[in-house]
Design a protein that fits this description.
The complex is a heterodimer. By secondary structure, chain A is mainly alpha-helical. In chain A, 64% of the residues lie in helices and 2% in strands. Chain A has helices spanning 2-18, 29-34, 60-69, 91-110, 114-130, 142-148, 153-173, 177-196, 206-226, 232-255, 266-284, and one strand at 51-55. The longest helix of chain A is centred in the last third of the chain and has 24 residues, at 232-255. Chain A is globular and about 100 Å long. Chain B is of the alpha+beta class. Chain B is built from two helices and nine strands; from the N terminus they run αβαββββββββ. Chain B has helices spanning 2-20, 33-44, and strands spanning 26-29, 48-58, 64-71, 78-83, 92-96, 108-112, 116-121, 129-136, 146-158. In chain B, strands 1, 2, 4, 7 and 9 form a five-stranded mixed beta sheet that branches. Chain B has a four-stranded antiparallel beta sheet with strand order 3-8-5-6, with no helix packed on it. Chain B is elongated. The chains are: A mainly alpha, B alpha+beta. Chains A and B meet through α1, β1, α3, α7 and α9 of A and α1, β2, β3 and β9 of B. β1 of chain A pairs parallel with β3 (64-71) of chain B, so a sheet runs across the interface.
Chain lengths: 286, 161
Protein backbone atom coordinates (compact mmCIF):
# COMPACT_ATOMS: atom_id res chain seq x y z
CA UNK A 1 0.00 0.00 0.00
CA UNK A 2 2.84 2.39 0.87
CA UNK A 3 4.49 1.61 -2.48
CA UNK A 4 1.24 2.30 -4.30
CA UNK A 5 0.88 5.62 -2.47
CA UNK A 6 4.45 6.57 -3.34
CA UNK A 7 3.92 5.66 -7.01
CA UNK A 8 0.73 7.70 -7.15
CA UNK A 9 2.48 10.68 -5.52
CA UNK A 10 5.40 10.51 -7.96
CA UNK A 11 3.10 10.27 -10.97
CA UNK A 12 1.15 13.33 -9.82
CA UNK A 13 4.33 15.27 -9.10
CA UNK A 14 5.57 14.55 -12.62
CA UNK A 15 2.34 15.85 -14.09
CA UNK A 16 2.72 19.10 -12.16
CA UNK A 17 6.30 19.53 -13.35
CA UNK A 18 5.32 19.05 -17.00
CA UNK A 19 2.41 21.48 -16.84
CA UNK A 20 4.46 24.25 -15.27
CA UNK A 21 5.53 27.63 -16.66
CA UNK A 22 6.34 27.63 -20.38
CA UNK A 23 9.89 28.69 -21.07
CA UNK A 24 10.37 31.34 -23.69
CA UNK A 25 12.29 30.08 -26.71
CA UNK A 26 13.35 32.91 -28.96
CA UNK A 27 14.01 30.64 -31.93
CA UNK A 28 10.65 29.03 -32.53
CA UNK A 29 8.47 30.00 -35.49
CA UNK A 30 5.53 30.85 -33.21
CA UNK A 31 7.40 33.85 -31.85
CA UNK A 32 8.33 34.96 -35.34
CA UNK A 33 4.67 34.67 -36.35
CA UNK A 34 3.65 36.78 -33.33
CA UNK A 35 5.93 39.55 -34.54
CA UNK A 36 4.46 39.57 -38.04
CA UNK A 37 2.60 42.64 -39.06
CA UNK A 38 0.35 43.42 -41.98
CA UNK A 39 3.25 43.88 -44.39
CA UNK A 40 5.71 41.35 -43.00
CA UNK A 41 5.79 38.80 -45.72
CA UNK A 42 9.49 38.33 -46.21
CA UNK A 43 11.03 36.59 -43.23
CA UNK A 44 14.59 35.58 -42.58
CA UNK A 45 14.29 32.41 -40.53
CA UNK A 46 17.96 32.00 -39.68
CA UNK A 47 18.09 31.33 -35.99
CA UNK A 48 19.13 34.06 -33.63
CA UNK A 49 20.05 36.47 -36.40
CA UNK A 50 17.41 38.96 -35.22
CA UNK A 51 17.07 40.32 -38.75
CA UNK A 52 14.08 40.55 -41.09
CA UNK A 53 13.50 42.35 -44.37
CA UNK A 54 10.06 43.14 -45.71
CA UNK A 55 9.18 44.47 -49.17
CA UNK A 56 6.14 46.73 -49.27
CA UNK A 57 3.88 46.80 -52.30
CA UNK A 58 2.98 50.07 -54.03
CA UNK A 59 -0.70 51.01 -54.19
CA UNK A 60 -2.76 50.70 -57.39
CA UNK A 61 -3.25 54.46 -57.21
CA UNK A 62 0.45 55.16 -57.32
CA UNK A 63 0.99 52.78 -60.22
CA UNK A 64 -2.01 54.24 -62.08
CA UNK A 65 -0.75 57.78 -61.45
CA UNK A 66 2.68 56.91 -62.77
CA UNK A 67 1.29 55.51 -66.01
CA UNK A 68 -1.06 58.45 -66.44
CA UNK A 69 1.81 60.86 -65.94
CA UNK A 70 3.79 58.91 -68.54
CA UNK A 71 1.10 59.69 -71.11
CA UNK A 72 -1.34 56.80 -70.73
CA UNK A 73 -4.71 57.92 -72.12
CA UNK A 74 -8.11 56.43 -71.48
CA UNK A 75 -9.34 53.90 -74.05
CA UNK A 76 -12.80 52.41 -74.31
CA UNK A 77 -13.09 48.68 -73.89
CA UNK A 78 -9.71 47.84 -72.37
CA UNK A 79 -10.94 47.38 -68.82
CA UNK A 80 -12.36 44.13 -67.47
CA UNK A 81 -16.04 43.24 -67.73
CA UNK A 82 -17.95 43.60 -64.50
CA UNK A 83 -20.84 41.25 -65.11
CA UNK A 84 -19.29 38.07 -63.71
CA UNK A 85 -17.57 39.27 -60.56
CA UNK A 86 -19.37 36.76 -58.35
CA UNK A 87 -18.56 33.76 -60.53
CA UNK A 88 -14.97 33.15 -59.44
CA UNK A 89 -14.98 29.88 -57.52
CA UNK A 90 -12.22 30.09 -54.90
CA UNK A 91 -10.99 32.77 -52.49
CA UNK A 92 -7.67 32.93 -54.35
CA UNK A 93 -9.46 33.42 -57.68
CA UNK A 94 -11.62 36.16 -56.17
CA UNK A 95 -8.54 37.87 -54.70
CA UNK A 96 -6.83 37.92 -58.12
CA UNK A 97 -9.96 39.41 -59.69
CA UNK A 98 -10.21 41.94 -56.85
CA UNK A 99 -6.76 43.22 -57.80
CA UNK A 100 -7.86 43.61 -61.41
CA UNK A 101 -10.97 45.56 -60.42
CA UNK A 102 -8.92 47.83 -58.13
CA UNK A 103 -6.60 48.66 -61.02
CA UNK A 104 -9.54 49.29 -63.37
CA UNK A 105 -11.33 51.49 -60.84
CA UNK A 106 -8.14 53.53 -60.42
CA UNK A 107 -7.76 53.83 -64.21
CA UNK A 108 -11.34 55.07 -64.55
CA UNK A 109 -11.05 57.54 -61.66
CA UNK A 110 -7.78 59.00 -62.96
CA UNK A 111 -9.42 59.47 -66.36
CA UNK A 112 -12.61 61.02 -64.96
CA UNK A 113 -14.74 58.03 -65.94
CA UNK A 114 -16.51 58.08 -62.61
CA UNK A 115 -19.66 56.22 -63.69
CA UNK A 116 -17.53 53.27 -64.78
CA UNK A 117 -15.49 53.59 -61.59
CA UNK A 118 -18.71 53.28 -59.59
CA UNK A 119 -19.43 49.90 -61.23
CA UNK A 120 -16.00 48.68 -60.21
CA UNK A 121 -16.55 49.87 -56.67
CA UNK A 122 -19.70 47.74 -56.49
CA UNK A 123 -17.78 44.73 -57.78
CA UNK A 124 -15.03 45.37 -55.26
CA UNK A 125 -17.62 45.40 -52.51
CA UNK A 126 -19.09 42.10 -53.73
CA UNK A 127 -15.69 40.47 -53.88
CA UNK A 128 -14.48 41.78 -50.51
CA UNK A 129 -17.70 40.44 -48.98
CA UNK A 130 -17.16 37.10 -50.69
CA UNK A 131 -13.61 36.67 -49.36
CA UNK A 132 -14.50 37.55 -45.78
CA UNK A 133 -13.56 41.22 -45.89
CA UNK A 134 -17.03 42.68 -45.49
CA UNK A 135 -15.69 44.92 -42.68
CA UNK A 136 -14.02 47.01 -45.40
CA UNK A 137 -17.35 48.50 -46.43
CA UNK A 138 -19.28 48.17 -43.18
CA UNK A 139 -20.38 51.43 -41.64
CA UNK A 140 -18.48 53.51 -44.15
CA UNK A 141 -21.19 54.56 -46.67
CA UNK A 142 -18.50 54.30 -49.33
CA UNK A 143 -20.94 53.66 -52.16
CA UNK A 144 -23.18 56.59 -51.13
CA UNK A 145 -20.21 58.89 -50.74
CA UNK A 146 -18.96 57.85 -54.16
CA UNK A 147 -22.35 58.66 -55.68
CA UNK A 148 -22.45 62.05 -53.95
CA UNK A 149 -19.01 62.98 -55.25
CA UNK A 150 -19.32 61.89 -58.87
CA UNK A 151 -17.60 64.53 -60.96
CA UNK A 152 -15.26 65.63 -58.15
CA UNK A 153 -12.06 63.77 -58.93
CA UNK A 154 -10.20 64.87 -55.85
CA UNK A 155 -12.93 63.61 -53.52
CA UNK A 156 -13.20 60.37 -55.44
CA UNK A 157 -9.43 59.86 -55.18
CA UNK A 158 -9.68 60.40 -51.44
CA UNK A 159 -12.39 57.73 -51.32
CA UNK A 160 -10.26 55.38 -53.34
CA UNK A 161 -7.41 55.81 -50.86
CA UNK A 162 -9.90 55.20 -48.05
CA UNK A 163 -10.98 51.88 -49.61
CA UNK A 164 -7.37 50.80 -50.05
CA UNK A 165 -6.55 51.80 -46.47
CA UNK A 166 -9.49 49.80 -45.16
CA UNK A 167 -8.37 46.75 -47.12
CA UNK A 168 -4.82 47.14 -45.78
CA UNK A 169 -6.13 47.50 -42.23
CA UNK A 170 -8.33 44.43 -42.57
CA UNK A 171 -5.42 42.41 -43.89
CA UNK A 172 -3.24 43.64 -41.01
CA UNK A 173 -5.80 42.89 -38.30
CA UNK A 174 -6.49 39.41 -39.65
CA UNK A 175 -2.91 38.48 -40.57
CA UNK A 176 -3.87 37.92 -44.20
CA UNK A 177 -0.57 39.04 -45.69
CA UNK A 178 -0.62 36.32 -48.33
CA UNK A 179 -3.96 37.56 -49.61
CA UNK A 180 -2.47 41.02 -50.10
CA UNK A 181 0.21 39.61 -52.41
CA UNK A 182 -2.44 37.80 -54.46
CA UNK A 183 -4.62 40.91 -54.76
CA UNK A 184 -1.58 42.92 -55.79
CA UNK A 185 -0.57 40.34 -58.41
CA UNK A 186 -3.99 40.69 -60.05
CA UNK A 187 -3.69 44.47 -59.95
CA UNK A 188 -0.18 44.38 -61.35
CA UNK A 189 -1.25 42.25 -64.30
CA UNK A 190 -4.10 44.63 -65.07
CA UNK A 191 -1.84 47.69 -64.75
CA UNK A 192 0.57 46.15 -67.25
CA UNK A 193 -2.32 45.28 -69.56
CA UNK A 194 -3.58 48.88 -69.46
CA UNK A 195 -0.08 50.20 -70.07
CA UNK A 196 0.68 47.81 -72.91
CA UNK A 197 -2.71 48.54 -74.55
CA UNK A 198 -1.85 52.20 -74.79
CA UNK A 199 -1.11 53.43 -78.33
CA UNK A 200 2.45 54.57 -78.91
CA UNK A 201 2.69 58.36 -79.06
CA UNK A 202 5.47 60.91 -79.37
CA UNK A 203 6.73 62.01 -75.98
CA UNK A 204 4.96 59.15 -74.25
CA UNK A 205 7.14 57.24 -71.78
CA UNK A 206 4.74 54.42 -71.02
CA UNK A 207 7.17 51.80 -72.35
CA UNK A 208 9.83 52.87 -69.85
CA UNK A 209 7.23 52.62 -67.08
CA UNK A 210 6.36 49.11 -68.21
CA UNK A 211 10.04 48.22 -67.89
CA UNK A 212 10.16 49.90 -64.50
CA UNK A 213 7.17 47.87 -63.29
CA UNK A 214 9.03 44.67 -64.09
CA UNK A 215 11.37 45.47 -61.18
CA UNK A 216 8.39 45.10 -58.87
CA UNK A 217 7.36 41.78 -60.32
CA UNK A 218 10.33 39.91 -58.90
CA UNK A 219 9.35 40.91 -55.37
CA UNK A 220 5.68 40.07 -55.98
CA UNK A 221 6.54 36.63 -57.29
CA UNK A 222 8.85 36.12 -54.32
CA UNK A 223 5.94 36.84 -51.99
CA UNK A 224 3.60 34.55 -53.94
CA UNK A 225 6.14 31.74 -54.00
CA UNK A 226 6.47 31.87 -50.21
CA UNK A 227 2.73 31.58 -49.77
CA UNK A 228 1.05 28.26 -48.99
CA UNK A 229 -2.10 29.37 -50.73
CA UNK A 230 -2.95 27.37 -53.81
CA UNK A 231 -5.61 26.93 -56.45
CA UNK A 232 -5.35 25.77 -60.03
CA UNK A 233 -5.64 29.33 -61.27
CA UNK A 234 -3.26 30.83 -58.70
CA UNK A 235 -0.62 28.20 -59.38
CA UNK A 236 -0.92 28.82 -63.11
CA UNK A 237 -0.58 32.58 -62.58
CA UNK A 238 2.52 32.09 -60.41
CA UNK A 239 4.15 29.92 -63.07
CA UNK A 240 3.33 32.39 -65.82
CA UNK A 241 4.69 35.32 -63.81
CA UNK A 242 7.89 33.37 -63.15
CA UNK A 243 8.23 32.81 -66.89
CA UNK A 244 7.62 36.49 -67.54
CA UNK A 245 10.46 37.42 -65.17
CA UNK A 246 12.83 35.08 -66.99
CA UNK A 247 11.83 36.61 -70.33
CA UNK A 248 12.34 40.14 -69.02
CA UNK A 249 15.74 39.35 -67.48
CA UNK A 250 16.88 38.21 -70.89
CA UNK A 251 15.59 41.15 -72.92
CA UNK A 252 16.66 43.75 -70.38
CA UNK A 253 20.25 42.76 -71.03
CA UNK A 254 19.70 43.01 -74.80
CA UNK A 255 17.90 46.35 -74.69
CA UNK A 256 20.23 48.06 -72.20
CA UNK A 257 23.60 47.01 -73.52
CA UNK A 258 24.21 44.40 -70.86
CA UNK A 259 23.24 46.57 -67.89
CA UNK A 260 20.09 47.09 -65.86
CA UNK A 261 17.96 49.85 -67.29
CA UNK A 262 14.54 50.90 -68.49
CA UNK A 263 14.97 51.00 -72.25
CA UNK A 264 12.81 48.44 -73.94
CA UNK A 265 12.44 47.69 -77.64
CA UNK A 266 8.98 47.90 -79.23
CA UNK A 267 8.93 44.25 -80.16
CA UNK A 268 9.72 43.32 -76.57
CA UNK A 269 6.89 45.49 -75.27
CA UNK A 270 4.58 43.65 -77.67
CA UNK A 271 5.85 40.30 -76.42
CA UNK A 272 5.35 41.30 -72.77
CA UNK A 273 1.88 42.51 -73.68
CA UNK A 274 1.03 39.13 -75.23
CA UNK A 275 2.26 37.24 -72.18
CA UNK A 276 0.35 39.57 -69.85
CA UNK A 277 -2.84 39.07 -71.91
CA UNK A 278 -2.60 35.33 -71.44
CA UNK A 279 -2.20 35.71 -67.66
CA UNK A 280 -5.02 38.25 -67.50
CA UNK A 281 -7.29 35.99 -69.52
CA UNK A 282 -6.60 33.15 -67.12
CA UNK A 283 -7.44 35.32 -64.08
CA UNK A 284 -10.71 36.56 -65.58
CA UNK A 285 -11.87 33.16 -66.85
CA UNK A 286 -14.73 31.65 -64.82
CA UNK B 1 -11.53 2.28 1.01
CA UNK B 2 -10.94 5.51 2.91
CA UNK B 3 -7.28 5.41 1.90
CA UNK B 4 -8.16 4.79 -1.73
CA UNK B 5 -10.52 7.76 -1.74
CA UNK B 6 -7.81 9.95 -0.21
CA UNK B 7 -5.30 8.83 -2.81
CA UNK B 8 -7.74 9.52 -5.62
CA UNK B 9 -8.43 13.00 -4.24
CA UNK B 10 -4.71 13.76 -3.97
CA UNK B 11 -4.19 12.51 -7.52
CA UNK B 12 -7.01 14.65 -8.89
CA UNK B 13 -5.72 17.68 -6.98
CA UNK B 14 -2.23 17.32 -8.38
CA UNK B 15 -3.56 16.70 -11.88
CA UNK B 16 -5.68 19.84 -11.75
CA UNK B 17 -2.69 21.82 -10.49
CA UNK B 18 -0.60 20.63 -13.38
CA UNK B 19 -2.98 22.16 -15.93
CA UNK B 20 -3.85 25.35 -14.11
CA UNK B 21 -0.75 26.07 -12.07
CA UNK B 22 1.37 27.27 -15.07
CA UNK B 23 1.89 31.04 -15.01
CA UNK B 24 0.46 32.78 -18.11
CA UNK B 25 3.01 35.10 -19.70
CA UNK B 26 2.03 38.72 -19.12
CA UNK B 27 2.50 41.19 -21.90
CA UNK B 28 2.67 44.92 -22.26
CA UNK B 29 1.38 45.69 -25.78
CA UNK B 30 1.42 49.41 -26.44
CA UNK B 31 0.51 49.26 -30.15
CA UNK B 32 -2.02 51.93 -31.08
CA UNK B 33 -2.20 51.54 -34.81
CA UNK B 34 -5.19 53.80 -35.53
CA UNK B 35 -3.80 56.74 -33.57
CA UNK B 36 -0.34 56.39 -35.09
CA UNK B 37 -1.84 56.11 -38.60
CA UNK B 38 -3.92 59.25 -38.03
CA UNK B 39 -0.83 61.18 -36.89
CA UNK B 40 1.09 60.03 -39.95
CA UNK B 41 -1.70 60.97 -42.38
CA UNK B 42 -1.98 64.41 -40.84
CA UNK B 43 1.69 65.15 -41.38
CA UNK B 44 1.76 63.80 -44.95
CA UNK B 45 0.18 66.92 -46.47
CA UNK B 46 0.93 68.29 -49.10
CA UNK B 47 2.12 64.92 -50.37
CA UNK B 48 -0.64 62.51 -51.37
CA UNK B 49 -1.00 59.86 -48.71
CA UNK B 50 -0.53 56.40 -50.19
CA UNK B 51 -0.58 53.79 -47.44
CA UNK B 52 0.57 52.81 -43.98
CA UNK B 53 2.74 49.84 -43.12
CA UNK B 54 2.47 48.46 -39.60
CA UNK B 55 5.34 46.44 -38.16
CA UNK B 56 4.82 44.56 -34.92
CA UNK B 57 7.80 44.36 -32.61
CA UNK B 58 8.53 42.15 -29.62
CA UNK B 59 11.54 43.30 -27.62
CA UNK B 60 13.92 40.44 -26.91
CA UNK B 61 17.11 39.84 -25.03
CA UNK B 62 19.11 40.33 -28.20
CA UNK B 63 19.39 43.20 -30.71
CA UNK B 64 17.12 43.07 -33.75
CA UNK B 65 16.86 44.90 -37.04
CA UNK B 66 13.71 44.94 -39.14
CA UNK B 67 14.12 46.49 -42.59
CA UNK B 68 11.29 47.84 -44.71
CA UNK B 69 12.19 47.99 -48.41
CA UNK B 70 9.99 50.44 -50.29
CA UNK B 71 9.91 50.64 -54.10
CA UNK B 72 10.34 54.03 -55.70
CA UNK B 73 9.55 55.08 -59.22
CA UNK B 74 11.52 57.32 -61.50
CA UNK B 75 10.97 61.03 -61.35
CA UNK B 76 8.63 60.98 -58.35
CA UNK B 77 9.07 62.73 -55.05
CA UNK B 78 8.31 60.78 -51.89
CA UNK B 79 7.72 61.42 -48.22
CA UNK B 80 7.98 58.79 -45.50
CA UNK B 81 6.84 59.26 -41.93
CA UNK B 82 7.75 56.80 -39.19
CA UNK B 83 5.72 56.82 -35.97
CA UNK B 84 7.04 54.83 -33.01
CA UNK B 85 4.58 56.10 -30.39
CA UNK B 86 3.12 52.60 -30.20
CA UNK B 87 6.29 51.10 -28.71
CA UNK B 88 7.00 50.60 -25.00
CA UNK B 89 10.71 51.36 -25.53
CA UNK B 90 12.68 53.60 -27.85
CA UNK B 91 14.22 52.37 -31.08
CA UNK B 92 16.40 54.00 -33.69
CA UNK B 93 15.31 54.43 -37.32
CA UNK B 94 17.99 54.52 -40.03
CA UNK B 95 17.47 55.06 -43.75
CA UNK B 96 19.74 53.73 -46.52
CA UNK B 97 19.73 53.46 -50.27
CA UNK B 98 21.15 49.94 -50.23
CA UNK B 99 19.99 46.69 -48.66
CA UNK B 100 21.71 45.24 -45.62
CA UNK B 101 24.76 43.30 -46.73
CA UNK B 102 25.58 45.80 -49.48
CA UNK B 103 26.29 48.83 -47.34
CA UNK B 104 30.07 49.01 -47.43
CA UNK B 105 30.76 52.66 -47.94
CA UNK B 106 27.03 53.41 -48.21
CA UNK B 107 25.75 56.68 -46.87
CA UNK B 108 23.01 56.78 -44.28
CA UNK B 109 20.35 59.11 -45.66
CA UNK B 110 18.56 59.82 -42.39
CA UNK B 111 18.55 58.69 -38.78
CA UNK B 112 16.31 59.45 -35.83
CA UNK B 113 15.16 58.26 -32.43
CA UNK B 114 12.21 60.68 -32.35
CA UNK B 115 8.71 59.33 -31.76
CA UNK B 116 7.69 60.58 -35.19
CA UNK B 117 10.07 61.61 -37.89
CA UNK B 118 9.84 62.16 -41.61
CA UNK B 119 12.15 62.33 -44.60
CA UNK B 120 11.67 63.17 -48.24
CA UNK B 121 13.26 61.80 -51.39
CA UNK B 122 13.29 63.74 -54.63
CA UNK B 123 14.39 63.14 -58.22
CA UNK B 124 18.03 63.32 -57.17
CA UNK B 125 17.62 60.07 -55.28
CA UNK B 126 18.55 57.57 -57.97
CA UNK B 127 17.93 54.18 -56.42
CA UNK B 128 14.61 52.42 -57.10
CA UNK B 129 14.37 51.30 -53.48
CA UNK B 130 14.74 52.87 -50.07
CA UNK B 131 15.56 50.79 -47.00
CA UNK B 132 14.25 51.84 -43.62
CA UNK B 133 15.84 50.00 -40.69
CA UNK B 134 14.17 49.72 -37.31
CA UNK B 135 17.09 49.14 -34.96
CA UNK B 136 15.62 47.47 -31.89
CA UNK B 137 17.85 47.27 -28.82
CA UNK B 138 18.03 44.23 -26.60
CA UNK B 139 16.31 44.42 -23.25
CA UNK B 140 17.05 42.63 -20.00
CA UNK B 141 16.04 39.02 -20.29
CA UNK B 142 13.42 39.39 -17.64
CA UNK B 143 11.61 42.60 -16.91
CA UNK B 144 9.32 41.24 -14.23
CA UNK B 145 8.55 38.48 -16.74
CA UNK B 146 6.47 40.85 -18.88
CA UNK B 147 6.70 40.61 -22.68
CA UNK B 148 7.34 44.07 -24.09
CA UNK B 149 5.71 44.60 -27.49
CA UNK B 150 4.21 47.24 -29.73
CA UNK B 151 4.16 48.49 -33.30
CA UNK B 152 5.73 50.99 -35.66
CA UNK B 153 3.49 52.66 -38.23
CA UNK B 154 5.18 54.00 -41.33
CA UNK B 155 3.29 56.14 -43.81
CA UNK B 156 4.31 56.70 -47.40
CA UNK B 157 3.16 59.39 -49.76
CA UNK B 158 4.13 60.87 -53.08
CA UNK B 159 3.91 64.25 -54.66
CA UNK B 160 0.48 64.93 -56.00
CA UNK B 161 0.39 63.66 -59.58
Amino acid sequence: MRIELLALFLASAMLVACGGEKKENPDISTEIEESMGDEELDIDLEEDQGYEEVFILPSPLQIGSIFKNAGLKYQEGVVAATDNSTAFPTTNDKALALGIYFADMTYCVLNNQTQEAKEYLKNIKDLTDAIGMSAVFEGSNLLDRFEQNLGNQDSILTLLIDVQDRVDMHIHENSQDELEAIIFAGGWVEGMHLGASSPKEEGNSVDARIAEQMTILENVVGLLNRSDRSSEKLDSVKNSLNELIKYYDQIEVEDNGGRRGFRIADEHVSEIAKKVEVIRGAILAV
Amino acid sequence: MKSLTSFALIFIAFTLLSFTGGKKEKENDTCKRDESAAAVKKEMVPFRFEKTTTTHIIFKHYDQVKTIAAPLFFDNKYKFIVNTEGLPKDIKVQVYDKPRGMRDGAKMIAESSEKQFSFELDEEYLSNRVYIDYVIPAIEETEDGILQKGCVVMGSGYENL
